[in-house]
Each structure stands twice: as C-alpha cells, then as structure tokens.
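Q&A log
Question type: sequence-to-structure
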Amino acid sequence: MENRSIIGSDFNAELKLKGFKVYKTDSNSAGHAYSRKDFFKINITFGDFIFHYAERSFETAPIFLFFGNPHIPYSCEAISEQHSGYTCLFSEDFLKPNERSESLLQSPLFKIGGNPIFNLTEDQADVFIPLFQKMLLEQDADYAYKDEMIRNYISLLIHEALKIQPAGNNYKYNNASSRITSVFLELLERQFPIESADQSLNRS
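Response status: OK
Response body:
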C-alpha cells in the first residue's frame, strides 16, 4: 500500500532518528505479505483492499482509514489496481511523552482485537486529509515545537476516527485450513520479524 521507492535505508534511518514520518502514497503495488513493523501507522487510502489478520479479515470501502500496531502482524491485498493517499508512521516514544498520548495508544484503534479499518465517505475523508497535509507542512518546518504540533494532529486523527462507527464488513476465511495457515504465519512473523535482507535476527 506504500510507494516502495521511498522506503529505503535513508527513509528508515530518518524515521528511527525522528520517530515520525508522513508522506503521500501513490502506488500500484499488489499489497504485502504478513509482517510486523517497527512503528505505529495511520493512513488514509483511496482504493479497495482486503486486510488479513490471524483470526479475521477486513474488506475496505473505496476510501478508508487504517490504524496499524507494530505488535500485530497483518497482510493486505489490493483489489483495485491504483491507490493513493497519505501515511504517517510514528514510534511509541514519539507519541507518548505525556499520559494523555499514552492513553491514545490504548484506544480500540490500536488494541489487539480492535477494529483497525474505518470505511469513509467522501465527506468524512475531507475531515482527515487536511490533518495529513498539515503534518506534511510541519514536518519540514523550522518551528521549534513542531513535534508537539504533529502529536496534536495525530491525536486529532485518532479522536476523529473514534467518533466514526468502525467498519463491520469482515471478510471471513473460507475454511479451517486458511485459519490455521494464517495463525502459523503470524507466529512465524513474531519469531522472525525481518522485513529485508540487510536486517539481522535479534538473538537476545
């Protein structure tokens, strides 16, 4: 769901240093396999997808909001050929320098068993898109307190999403073997969370 050309070593190094990154997405990729990321993710996407977790799947509307937890592996497959939108990635340390932000990460949007997909109307999308655009502007600004402003925009994204009824259109697995395979893949990813050839296993 991301433009893979920008997800390189420089991009990851900057993300790990600052703890935050926002960017526009424009890709014709087919999705990605089960993986666990290092960062929380919020994105708004124009395009049809199916997201697969170990115990359930979600089929999206043509416009949707997605909340990703780095501790919950998932895969997604693109149904539509073209898709675009905005994505912000952030670390837990970036978002929770205070108790208020810490409580946001315990919201149903990020918790295991919660609903990470919010199908949107065009009017609802018009509420979220400006928040991503403002984060893009602040990200490159010289303002000394821009991190705090970005945290506020993330908080607004979360609160606006909590005001919307979560999508209820779960896409069920066809049979028990699919369910077992998905659980196995999730457990495998938890043991070997490697996303590229230049990453090594944590032997601790």
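Response note: Residues 3-7, 167-176, 193-204 have pLDDT under 50 and may be disordered.
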